[in-house]
Write a structure and sequence with these properties.
Chain lengths: ~130, ~140
């Protein structure tokens, strides 16, 4: 029984490490800051979650110790990593970092040119329901 | 930056601040038997308040915690000093600590140690110093 769960922990930790490695490759290979942020945020967060889950399961089965700190860390990373990526990308865009040359669509530029408000067609799409 | 454009950061900080403060409380009380203690708990609490100040602004932190952090610093030092001098009343040397086992209603047999009160002083002093530095530097003049 314990051996099977140990193997689950091993596979989880290995999968997390592989996800982190893929994230690092993405940081090197991708062309601009937004694509790199995409690689670094999602893949690294998932990798860290897998490693923490593997550690949690391992200590649970081997030591019989339910470590709430690891669960809290999983929730914490899951909450904060996407927000950090979002802030990073937005700060880069607002300070004028160019998009990659192969990008085909830039909706946020239109919004910014319009003075921080949504463009008219976007407003039509997302019109709030009228209150009686 | 237009107001209200920080909606992701603000809403997530509202949740995350409570996680950080709970973890700081855990670090404070577990300092006797595992890594933790007053210093790191104070820094963690100040980090939570700093996150609140980054997501909103310093006035929000002042509204959430309407205390003068210089007084918090002084109170912490006073508590630490009183814990040290309290040993004189029992004919013991300065900073001599004592502990005992008590039966608390919900927790059962608990070891209560006067070092925890000293740690509370350290905690308050660290929170006060860190928040004073951050507010003084970050304030718009």
């Amino acid at each position: 029984m314990a051996t099977i769960v140990e193997w689950i922990a091993i596979v989880l930790a290995l999968a997390g490490a592989i996800f982190c490695a893929i994230s690092a490759f993405g940081l090197i290979r991708l062309p601009d800051v937004y694509l790199r942020s995409h690689a670094a945020t999602k893949s690294a967060a998932l990798g860290v979650l897998f490693v923490l889950l593997g550690a949690f399961i391992y200590f649970w089965v081997v030591d019989g110790d339910i470590n709430a700190k690891l669960l809290l860390a999983i929730v914490f990373v899951f909450l904060t990593s996407p927000v950090a990526g979002h802030l990073n990308g937005r700060a880069a865009y607002r300070s004028g970092v160019k998009l990659w040359g192969g990008s085909v669509r830039d909706d946020f530029k239109k919004v910014l040119e319009n003075g921080g408000k949504s463009t008219p067609d976007a407003v039509q799409e997302a019109e709030p329901p009228k209150r009686p | 930056m237009p107001k209200g454009s920080d909606i992701f950061l603000q809403n997530v900080s509202k949740i995350v601040v409570f996680i950080i403060l709970a973890f700081a409380l855990y670090l404070f009380f577990t300092g006797h038997v595992s890594p933790g203690g007053g210093f790191i708990a104070g820094l963690t609490s100040a980090g939570a308040l700093l996150l609140l100040a980054l997501a909103f602004d310093i006035d929000t932190v002042r509204k959430v915690l309407p205390v003068d952090f210089k007084l918090v610093m002084a109170l912490g030092l006073l508590i630490a000093l009183c814990t040290g001098t309290g040993a004189f009343f029992f004919g013991e040397p300065f900073l001599k600590h004592a502990f005992g086992y008590f039966h608390l209603p919900l927790l059962g047999k608990t070891e209560l140690h006067t070092a925890l009160i000293f740690d509370l002083g350290v905690y308050l002093a660290v929170v006060g110093v860190t928040m004073t530095i951050l507010i003084t530097i970050g304030e718009d003049s």
